[in-house]
Design a protein that fits this description.
heterodimer, A: about 375 residues, three-stranded antiparallel beta sheet, B: about 190 residues, alpha/beta, six-stranded mixed beta sheet, about 25% strand
């Protein structure tokens, strides 16, 4: 056994005439279909069991926090799209809320309703992706993913008809949103909301009782509530442990307090519960959109702001519940045209804090399912 | 609705439990001394009234004379938020690590170490995270790229603005961020034309 062997590795098998059972280091990634991006998991294996897991990240580091110090507050909005490219609207929103908090301005009521509309549509699109790729990781090769992409496609079409972009939307503005809703959006949303509950039932029938999915994800990657809170986990990963912490209820923004919806929580904190929580959140988002669609107030969609925005000296920390958890922006201004400091509290990165303890002791195949259930976006990890 | 914690009342109780731990108090914000940081944060976490069990965020700001390490602590039961700051020297930035209290600090402290160069004493695995070992310097520091003191990062003003705040045409004027010409209008905080 070499001196670099981690503790707990059994030697074994020597009596059988084979050599000592050396641990094997397996690199998952950076280019690997199960890592959902350029993310590298260095797993040390004893047989099929993971005895140590180390993640190597930074392949997608674009130094956004440094770049943002050289650009005006408004010019930084497109950067936030690229932080979490699967939830660009949520990132736009969190950053705009932080700057609005810094300046002490509030978006008009119509803008707030439009923001909720797109934040919830973004949650549907992101959870469709998360659940589809999770089923992929569990062995349901591509079929559920493409079923869910069918629904995601309609959401991206709605983004496109509103702001011209599908992925990196750059739609929210400081003090509101960039454009008013086009006339064709609400009919498209109506028909989408009419279809979606049936589709969700279809997914539940196909996936929730599926024996392979249950065998692959139940009691895999378990973390308890206390450990999850201590590790600063957020979003569906935290709620799957039974902690009902959702910033839309706990710290409402844009008028979420006026909507009736539930916070789905899990019981065991395993991969299956995370999947269930996301499935149920899709239904809750549909419920929010049903309440919103006929009650969008009229009026302006962008507050009147000086073209040359110089927020007063100070700092602000604003958070939203993004599909992946608590997404916060910490913005410091020294009174100049650019932020003095721009920091993103990235839920994808912080949710990985518990990856090591979730994977150690399980098999390598479980580690892939666990990573899929955390739902990382590498652009947000590396920034 | 998340409330902002009454920092002055909390500072009194914290001062009784850990004398000398509080350096300054602002609304919703405590500035702690780094010698007593661990004891003070342990009090904030375990005290039933404060109950700040969730480390929402940890980051740092380069203030050029010193670094501010900024933490946002959240109570899930009482639903209130507190900002905690601690200073680090600019020449030898060392701050005690919070990983023993909050495991959620693990990756966030590694990130601050990687990009800002602040060492967290007691961190179990402090190494570069986004950048590679041997990368020269710490990019989020204001003096990265060797800019002299008066050449501040950032833009001096907006394009098409008049006066000394104007965006200089490349090759014709002083470099962005150069000290304003004598008698020129300074950049007024919060002011906009």
């Amino acid at each position: 056994m070499t001196s670099g062997t981690p503790a707990g590795v059994t030697q074994g098998a020597a009596e059988g005439g084979f050599g000592p059972n050396e641990p094997v280091v397996v690199n998952l990634g950076p280019q690997h279909p199960s890592t959902h991006g350029v993310f590298r998991l260095k797993a040390t294996l004893d047989g099929e069991r993971v005895v140590d897991a180390d993640m190597i990240i930074g392949y997608l580091h674009r130094s956004m926090e440094k770049l943002a110090e050289e650009r005006t507050f408004t010019q930084n909005i497109p950067f936030t799209d690229r932080i979490d490219y699967l939830a660009a609207m949520s990132n736009n929103l969190a950053y705009c809320l932080a700057v609005e908090k810094l300046c002490g301005i509030e978006a008009p009521p119509r803008a707030q309703a439009i923001r909720i509309l797109f934040a919830e549509l973004q949650r549907l699109a992101s959870h469709a992706m998360a659940n589809g790729t999770f089923a992929n990781d569990c062995g349901a090769w591509q079929t559920p993913l493409f079923h869910m992409f069918r629904e995601r496609e309609r959401i991206l079409d709605m983004f496109e008809m509103t702001c011209g972009a599908r992925l990196t939307t750059n739609y929210m503005r400081i003090g509101g949103v960039a454009f008013d809703l086009p006339p064709e959006l609400l009919p498209a949303l109506r028909s989408f909301l009419d279809d979606l509950p049936g589709k969700i039932e279809e997914y539940r029938d196909l996936l929730l009782g599926n024996e392979i999915l249950l065998a692959r994800s139940r009691d895999v990657g378990v973390i308890d509530a206390e450990g999850a809170v201590n590790a600063s986990l957020a979003g569906p990963v935290l709620r799957a442990t039974g902690v009902p912490w959702d910033l839309r209820k706990a710290d409402p923004y844009c008028g979420y307090e006026a909507f009736d919806f539930d916070i789905p929580v899990g019981r065991n904190g395993d991969c299956y519960d995370r999947f269930l929580v996301r499935m149920e959140e899709v239904r809750q988002s549909v419920h929010i959109l049903e309440q919103l669609i006929d009650n969008i107030p009229g009026g302006a969609w962008l507050a009147e702001l000086p073209l040359h925005l110089r927020p007063p000296e100070g700092e602000a920390y604003a958070r939203v519940e993004s599909p992946r958890g608590e997404l916060g922006f910490y913005v410091v201004s020294d009174g100049g045209p650019t932020p003095y400091r721009f920091h993103c509290r990235a839920p994808s990165l912080i949710n990985l804090t518990a990856l090591r303890e979730m994977t150690i002791g399980g098999t390598l195949a479980d580690a892939i399912v666990t990573l899929g259930s955390i739902d990382i976006v590498v652009g947000e990890i590396d920034r | 609705m998340t409330t902002i914690l009454d920092a002055a009342a909390l500072a009194d109780r914290l001062g009784a439990a850990c004398p000398g731990a509080v350096a300054a108090v602002a609304p919703g914000e405590l500035r702690l001394r780094r010698e007593q940081l661990i004891d003070a944060v342990r009090f904030l976490r375990d005290d039933p009234e404060a109950d700040l069990v969730f480390l929402s965020g940890l980051t740092a700001v380069d203030r050029e004379t010193h670094f501010d390490v900024v933490m946002h602590l959240q109570s899930l039961d009482h639903n209130h938020l507190l900002t905690v700051k601690v200073e680090a020297d600019h020449d030898d930035p060392v701050v005690p690590s919070l990983t023993a209290l909050y495991r959620g600090a693990h990756l966030q402290e590694r990130e601050v170490f990687d990009l800002m160069g602040i060492r967290f004493e007691g961190h179990p695995d402090l190494r570069r995270m986004f950048l590679w070992d041997g990368f020269p310097g710490y990019p989020l520091r204001k003096d990265f790229l060797g800019m002299p003191g008066q050449l501040k990062a950032g833009l001096p003003g907006f394009p098409h603005e008049s006066g000394d705040n104007a965006w200089p045409v490349p090759g014709t004027g002083p470099r962005p961020g150069a000290a304003p010409a004598p008698g020129g209008a300074p950049i007024v905080p919060g002011g906009s034309p």
